[in-house]
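Table 4 source record.
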Amino acid sequence: MTESTSSVGSSVDLAAIAAAFGQRLHAIGVPVTPEHSARFAASVQAANPRTLPQLYWLARITLVSHRDQLPGFDLLFDQMFRGILMLSQAGPGGDPAGVPAALPTLPPTGQHAPRTQGAQHHPGDGALITSSTPGPVADEQDAVGDDPSLLAAASAQERLGNRDFATLTVEETSQIRRLIEDLPMVLPRRSGRRTYRAQRGQALDLRATLRRAHRSAGDPLHLVRRRRRTKPRRLVLLADVSGSMEPYSRAYLHLLRGAVLALRAEAFVFATRLTRLSRPLAQGSTDAAYQQVAAKAGDWSGGTRLGACLLEFVERHGRRGMARGAVVVVVSDGWEIEDPALVGEAMARLRRLAHHVIWVNPRQAAEGYQPLVGGMAAAIPYVDTFVSGHSVDALGQVVDAIAAA
């Protein structure tokens, strides 16, 4: 077996191996808990590493919490995953159930690994013939940045961050759910009516200043100032789930749920009709939330009545207070099966109500794209910020636009 393996864990009990490895690490002083071991097993199953360097980095980023633990970790990894130590010796309890006697033997890792004569890496073949884990030999220090083994440490963010949502498989779409829900969303703030005492306040508190002047024979030596309190603005998200947005709808559903849970945002989806999903998405269980969404949004992947749905939002929710002074995010490619003038009318009314309007169009990422036709052309004059949001990294621009609104 060479270092370019078939799928790691394809024929072994991942849970048992992860538990045995974690138990052995704990025994040598690395604070590994059963939760860490479970996370390691889950990462191996999700990432499906095909080389030992990839397996090494998955173990390192899930089980090591401090660099002082690396010497013991590297030594034990060599022993257990390169065949130096039999897995039957991995823990005080003997041979873990379902774990093979030993894994295939490969050269040792780390700084102590012997160099193969004339070894080199051939781009594209996925096989690194020299030492695979960190710890370059002294004469390779300058080239460490090009060592393909370091690429094995790429997390899901690094692997999928720049990928267009339309190119993701179903499994990859499920992997980015946590990345999207964990985006650091921050709401812009507005001035409130109430004030509080502040050393650098903008307004003078005359009563408090005069009361304090009694301590200095009536001379106002200390001025008391006040500052207005700030309150977060309301966030409203409207996502197009019509057929033309099918490659992006599921990813943006994760964003809507994250915003509802973290910021108490109001969430809507629309295709041929408008559906409010704030309550279903607030369910504690993700599966239960998405089941309710599927039950309520019966027009998912249908046609697009963009203007009519935006007008319905303005009439039923926006002008009654939901959109007043709010940051409104519309996610749509601008496709409209009816008169685009309806989109312009709806956006003009929405712009008068909202504090800031952000339009997210994944098609904007295409080279040479211009919002010159259809509903997008009618909407763009009333948009404050126009971004693509076609990938996880591009969603960072959406989050930044919300915070800076």
